[in-house]
Amino acid sequence: MTTPGTPVIGVLALQGDVREHLIALAAADAVARPVRRPEELAEVDGLVIPGGESTTMSKLAVLFGMMEPLRERIAAGLPVYGTCAGLIMLADKILDPRSGQETLGGIDMIVRRNAFGRQNESFEAAVEVAGVTDGPVDGVFIRAPWVESVGAEAEVLAEHDGHIVAVRQGNALATSFHPELTGDHRVHGLFVDMVRAAG
């Protein structure tokens, strides 16, 4: 599927900041490509679920016939990384879901949508992330969720203001913030390493 050491990582391209993730993954030494259809999903070693609007993303995943293939591959161990809305998509439970909103699951956590406030309350903060070396990452929080609680299998990687903002469970990684918007590719590098290890 790939040359040794160079994983092919898809970015779910239904909605959200797809281009920025493609750039960040390429900078972290992966082959990056957009994924919109089940046959494209079958060709990747890992997948990023970008930020955007989680309700819209959920509906589009159903519309494009992607919801079940995504759930199946994630359940089978596909390495996956969700940012912001992607974190919500990877949660087993949403505290305050919109009507008809579905998730993919993969991380035993309960999340709260828009927990850090509205669009005009967006902010940046330095976040220490376990597994990322050389100091804190610059976290961009835009209508960001936070994680209310995690199950026994999930590992908390970062907190901000007493709230969980980064979690890992097995091959699934999720952050409330957007590292793809900063030019700092270390979180993507962590995920690329996860994909390599899984391969």
Question: Would you mind describing this structure in some detail?
Answer:
The protein starts with 7 loop residues before the first strand and ends with a helix. It is built from 6 helices and 12 strands. A hairpin with a 2-residue loop joins strand 11 (163-169) and strand 12. The strands form 3 sheets. The protein has a 7-stranded mixed sheet. A 3-stranded mixed sheet has the order 5-6-9. The protein has 199 residues and is of the alpha/beta class. It is globular, with a radius of gyration of 15 Å.
Brief summary:
By secondary structure, the chain is an alpha/beta fold. 26% of the residues lie in helices and 30% in strands.
Lay out the secondary structure.
Elements: E1 8-12, H1 18-27, E2 31-35, H2 38-41, E3 46-49, H3 54-63, H4 67-75, E4 80-83, H5 85-90, E5 91-94, E6 107-112, E7 123-127, E8 137-141, E9 146-150, E10 155-160, E11 163-169, E12 172-175, H6 186-198
Parallel strand pairs: 1-2, 1-3, 3-4, 4-12, 5-6
Antiparallel strand pairs: 6-9, 7-8, 10-11, 11-12
Radius of gyration, in Å, reads 15 Å
Described by strand count, sense and barrel closure, the largest sheet is: 7 strands, mixed
What string gives the helices and strands in order? EHEHEHHEHEEEEEEEEH
Number of helices: 6
- Strand residues, percent: 25-35%
Q: What global shape is seen?
A: globular
Report the helical percentage: 25-40%
Unreliable parts: none
Q: State the end-to-end CA separation.
A: 10 Å
Question: How many E-type strands?
Answer: 12
